[in-house]
Each structure stands twice: as C-alpha cells, then as structure tokens.
Amino acid sequence: KKILVVFGTRPEAIKMAPLVKEFEKNSSSFETKVCITAQHREMLDQVLSFFEIIPHYDLDLMKPNQNLYSLTSDIITNLKPVFEDFKPDYIFVHGDTTTTMATSIAGFYSGAQICHVEAGLRTFNMKSPFPEEMNRSVTGVVANIHFAPTITSRQNLLNENKKEESILVTGNTVIDALLFSVDKVNSNNFNDQEIESLKKLVDKEKRLILVTGHRRENHGQGFINICKALKEIAEAYIDCEIIYPVHLNPNVQKPVYNLLSGINNIKLIDPLSYPAFVWLMEKSYLIITDSGGVQEEAPSLGKPVLVMRSTTERPEAVEAGTVLLVGTDTDTIISETIKLLNSTETYLNMSKLHNPYGAGNACEKIVNYIKNHIR
Ligand code: UDP
C-alpha cells in the first residue's frame, strides 16, 4: 500500500518524523513518501535534516506576508498533481495547521483514506480568526481514521459521532520524537555546533528558565504582559537566568526585543533546531511557554511547565498537574513562577508526575493499525 505523509510546519515535522521512520521500517508492506508544503521553511528544514528525511515532494509554499486565504488555496491546488503522480492509498496529516486542514480537503477529493494523527483535541472555542480549532475540527470531519493521543481526545471524537472503530488511542508521537532525540543528542558520536554554542552560553551556576511563545492569540498585549513578567522575574531572581529562543514572527520579535534586550540574566536567541532545544529543555529548571508540543514533551523530562494561555486543548496535562495554565496576566505569571522557584515541595510535586501523553510507542501502534486495516 502507498502511504503519503504531508506536513508543513516545524511541530508537525517533529511529530510526523518518527512515523515516517516507522513506515520506512516496514517497507515490505508500505511504500512511503513525504510531501512538505513548507508553510514554515527554515524551521522545517532543520527538523528534516536531524531526522534524516528527504521529502519526495516539496511544494515550497512559504511566501513573505503569507495569508491564510492564499495558503489554503495554494495547498489544495498544488497537491492535485502530487496525488495524481503517487496515487496514495492513505494520506497522513497531523494536528491543526492550515496544511492539515487543506490537505485533508484535497485528500478527500483524491479518494484516499485520510488519517489524522493527534486527532480529537478541542478547546470548544472556535474563535475567528484563530485557525487551530477550525482546522482540527474540519480535519476531523473529513478523516476516515483518527489517531487520538489520549482517551480524552477519543471521547471528544465519540461525542462528535465518529465511529468507535475509526479511532485508536496511541499516545502522542511527540514522545517518540523526544525519546529518539534525547538518545541521539546524548550519544558520543553526535556533534552539533548549536549545542556547543549553547554550552558556552548557559550559566551553569544559575537556575535556567526556558521560555518560548508564538501563538497568534498572544500577539499584541499578550506578549507585552509576558515580557513585563519575565523582566520582573529576572530582576528579582538573579540566581536564575532566562533563555528565550524568540520565534521568527515579527509580531513576537518586536515586543520581545524591545522590552527584554539588555537585561543581564535574560538571553534572547534565535529559535533553536530541535536537537539543541531538546538539549536545553533537559538543562532547564522550569519552562514557561504557550507551545502545545512543549507541554507534552516537558513532563517526560521532569520539567514543570507554566502555560501562557487561558484555554487549552490539552486538559490531560493540566489534570495530571504537569502543567499549569497561567494566561498572559503579568502578575499571575510572576506569582506562579515565584512559587516554583521558592518552594521545593511545589517544584517536586509538579516535576515528578507521570506523562499523560504516553510512553513513546505511538508510531508503532499507528503502523500496526494500518497493517490490520489493509488485511
Ligand atoms: N521547538 C524547537 N525549537 C525551538 C522551540 C521549540 O525545536 O526553538 C520544538 C519543541 O520541542 C516542540 C515544537 O518545537 O516539539 C513545538 O513547536 P511550536 O511551539 O512552534 O508549536 P506548537 O507545539 O505550539 O504547535
């Protein structure tokens, strides 16, 4: 059978890379090809090179000042010749991006089975113009097979009347990616220029607070509040150092560089390639982020996470207590960070919990499911 895996952004690439590897391991049953839309370019290419994946089709759709209207239609239009060339039986998409949604629509026209990885996440807050909830819901409508990371996401799909036999709970493939990467990064023969530079940058005497943020819903006042909080924390806790790989989006770069440049124990750096980021997560004391993937990864490394969002499509982590929602209110970010910095008990309670996103065998489960499906 022919498998086409389509993705476009860094987080999708990280979460789909181990699946591509798993299908390739089973080459007697599957012919596997990868198509990238390159909705993000540079950050995506770094991931592909780390996982040693060479895409068979590269739509190369990233444009300056890209908007979602043209991106959506470009993806649909440009996938037609790819589908006609490869004639996939199964098309795999991931998560909630414009690539995910547009590919599933195009895939529907092609007649292939649409397989949605990381299916069933919901905020129940479809707020225009933020696209994620719409993207994942539309994909859910079109998909034939839903790979849900947790029983909560499975239940969301059942509530939408998806058939029980079309859903498999797998855990999140990001844990597969993380465990592979931790091994690779720590192996003796792995040499990485970025990690060598980080070793020089990190002050080993200080507790490291790792920060990332990119969400559209936080653009504007959200990032201003976040930066104010980080500034106060850095000034009050000189035994800590904040390292912040700043997302390339100008709506993020502007407030962050304006408000946080020139503070001694805040180091603003470019976004890191995945291995370097994994290395830095391992070295960190705690993580402050609005990223979805980081919330899922950090518990496997025993790192508490404060999430700068007011809603989440990842309630399992909040329920398990591995992450805490702090929104983008300056005072709340400061007070919750201080609790973790001041109280060993609070810290240990949060860092020693079991990861609700699985054990790192999601890809094997997915491939086995497809093997049974074709029998
Ligand atoms: N990540 C990375 N480099 C960075 C920041 C994050 O490789 O500088 C990784 C991180 O480990 C996670 C993924 O990128 O696996 C998350 O991506 P992002 O926060 O952009 O998207 P989200 O998960 O919120 O969709």
Automatic annotation (TrEMBL):
One protein family per Pfam: Epimerase_2
Keyword hit for Transferase: no
Keyword Isomerase: yes
Top EC class of this enzyme: isomerase
UniProt GO molecular function: UDP-N-acetylglucosamine 2-epimerase activity
Coiled-coil ranges (or none): none
Keywords, comma-separated and alphabetical: Isomerase
EC nos: 5.1.3.14
Family (UniProt): Belongs to the UDP-N-acetylglucosamine 2-epimerase family.
Protein's recorded name: UDP-N-acetylglucosamine 2-epimerase (non-hydrolyzing)
InterPro entries: UDP_GlcNAc_Epimerase_2_dom (IPR003331), WecB-like (IPR029767)
Record-annotated UDP-N-acetylglucosamine 2-epimerase domain positions: 26-371
